[in-house]
Backbone:
């Protein structure tokens, strides 16, 4: 029995076919979900529309998460079209390129603000708008995407690591606020995967190789593996799990020297 039949989900963060959010969209669709994909900026709209056309029951809407009006319009459209929302996947992240190459200590005020706004506050802002629509359905599930750089230092991950720390803390506070309405909030901490966002991090290939050398599974993970974990958290199998950061990283996080 498909796990997300008759569920409506919003997926934020599809840019191209390599996006982790796209793998989650495909997996959720295969489980029977009706999807709304949001995209940030006209530059990637065609990409997202082409991908969406390969799945049944998908609508595509604009939403730059730094723009409150676009966020309001997105949720108004979802309410008008679907009357409610069952799950949301948050896969938006951004940092200025110079902040992912220079030493962290040189992070500018503006670079810090932008990274934390797009990559962490956006989860709070989207959850606030999603919650009433989920409450009308009797509950819901929210999943965001994090990285181990939230709690360990990875060269050049820099301000994005600080943003992921804020994101994971936000997951716990949101889970506490929204739990009484039956809304669960979790993060998946994925191992490194070559995507558009990852291409911005200097020395990313070296990080991938370190995982191949040292992770218990002696490999990196694929977007489909993150997607399967997301379906677990989004669907009924994850009904007892909230405020959690689930590691999907071939076990790398457990290793010391
Ligand atoms: P990606 O580049 O495909 O996805 C990042 C998305 O963020 C893009 O769709 C982009 O359009 C969106 N975005 C950026 N600014 C935005 C804005 N202002 N409004 C709305 N959306 C905006 O790369 P990805 O690796 O699939 O990243 C998805 C998530 O997974 C990110 O949170 C990333 O930090 C996280 N993650 C990635 C890895 C990895 O190694 N690739 C590992 C762990 C976690």
Residues:
């Amino acid at each position: 029995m498909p796990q997300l039949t008759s569920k409506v989900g919003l997926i934020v963060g599809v840019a191209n076919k390599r996006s982790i959010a796209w793998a989650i969209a495909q997996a959720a669709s295969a489980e029977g979900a009706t999807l709304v994909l949001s995209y940030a900026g006209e530059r990637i709209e065609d990409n997202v529309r082409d991908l969406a056309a390969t799945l049944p029951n998908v609508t595509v809407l604009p939403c730059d998460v730094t723009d409150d009006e676009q966020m309001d319009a997105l949720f108004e459209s979802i309410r008008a079209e679907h009357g409610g929302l069952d799950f949301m996947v948050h896969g938006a992240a951004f940092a200025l390129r110079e902040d992912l190459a220079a030493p962290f200590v040189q992070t500018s005020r503006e670079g810090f603000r932008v990274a934390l706004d797009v990559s962490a506050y956006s989860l709070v802002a989207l959850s606030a708008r999603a919650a009433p629509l989920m409450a009308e359905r009797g509950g819901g599930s929210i999943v965001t995407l994090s990285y181990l750089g939230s709690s360990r230092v990875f060269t050049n991950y820099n301000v994005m690591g600080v943003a992921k720390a804020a994101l994971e803390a936000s997951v716990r506070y949101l889970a506490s606020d929204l739990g009484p309405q039956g809304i669960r909030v979790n993060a998946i901490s994925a191992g490194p995967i070559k995507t558009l966002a990852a291409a911005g991090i200097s020395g990313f290939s070296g990080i991938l190789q370190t995982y191949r050398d040292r992770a218990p599974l002696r490999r990196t993970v694929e977007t489909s593996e993150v997607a399967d974990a997301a379906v677990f958290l989004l669907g009924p199998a994850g009904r007892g799990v909230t405020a959690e950061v689930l590691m999907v990283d071939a076990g790398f996080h457990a290793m010391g020297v």
Notes: The first helix runs from residue 20 to 30.
